[in-house]
Design a protein that fits this description.
The chain contains ten helices and 13 strands. With 360 residues, it is of the alpha/beta class. It has two domains: 2-108 and 332-359, no CATH class; 118-321, von Willebrand factor, type A domain (Rossmann fold). The strands form four sheets. A six-stranded mixed beta sheet has the order 6-5-4-7-8-11, sandwiched between helices. Strands 1-3-12 form a three-stranded antiparallel beta sheet. A two-stranded antiparallel sheet has the order 2-13. Helix 7 (234-243) links the parallel strand 7 and strand 8. The relative contact order is 0.17. The model is unreliable at 1-6 and 356-360 (pLDDT under 50).
Length: 360
Amino acid sequence: MNKLNKNIPTTALGLDILFSLGILIAYLSFRAHGLRFDNPRSLYFLLLLIPSYYFFFSNYQKLNKTYSEANSIIGFSGQLTRFAVKFLALKFCFIGVILALSDPVLGFEKKDLPSKGSDIMVCLDLSRSMDVKDIEDKSRLESAKNVLKALANKLTGQRIGLCVFAENSIIQLPLTRDYDRFKIMVSEVNTSYFSNQGTNISSAVDNARNSLNRNGQQHFILLLTDGENHQETQDIFIDSLTKSNIKLIATAIGTESGGPVLEGDNKKIRLDAEGNVILSKVNLSLVKSLAEKSRGIWFHLTEPYPSPDPILTEINLNASRDLRNLDWKIVRRLFSAPLIMALFAFMLYILAPPFIPKRR
């Protein structure tokens, strides 16, 4: 029986080497086909396996010594076997989780996607009034971000860009089909981007218009604002839109009842000289006027998570009929494979409970 106990760590070590070699061979095979890790720093956690082996062998020796000195205990060798199995199961569960966190990516997967040639340039208002929380305790800016991210999730090949504005305007993201990047940029913007406050819609729309290609196709400017315009140069950009093949989709964000304007730190309510609360209300008449004069269309959003379907329907109905196939290269992420390995290893760990020896 002592001989059996000595063979247990050898058998466990053999199985460990066998499975580890299997993982290594699979890694080398996939790497030859372009495997890489988008989060390679997570792999440094595998160094924790070194002290875990010390823990395993030191505890195994203690258990084996107990077995040698306690011949009256029946089945102690079974406990040693279970100890080795549970260690290996926990080890490969840990390896699977770490490999999944490292985000393995294998080459590219080509997909042909039908795409309309229209471009969409978003003009997002970042004036302080967009921080007003009059949409079910959500700010106007939060509602605008939610509808933009939902819109990006439903695009099918159109290019989309982002122009942010207050008193001034800048192209935050040029036209792109990288929708994930667009959503990240939308998530990061806030009303502190501009030190000079105000709402210069004319500058934003004109900046967006200049970034769109003049190729004869129908393009769109999606304006999201609460309508508190402080500039009086609307006729200039309205005239330029009507002469170009660009359709304005003016979207008002906020309620007609409005809400209190906050100070720069968004913690205190702003008061006027007489101590009254300053309210900000959506200016629907301005948004309607912009759409009608430019032969566009307008929407009014008053929900914290608005549906992008009406906007997307308008874009699809008015977009160019010329369809083209885009040969996209999409990475194939393999994090599910190591997660499945970790799941099976964890199930093995659970199904091998500690052995409770019985005395004669």
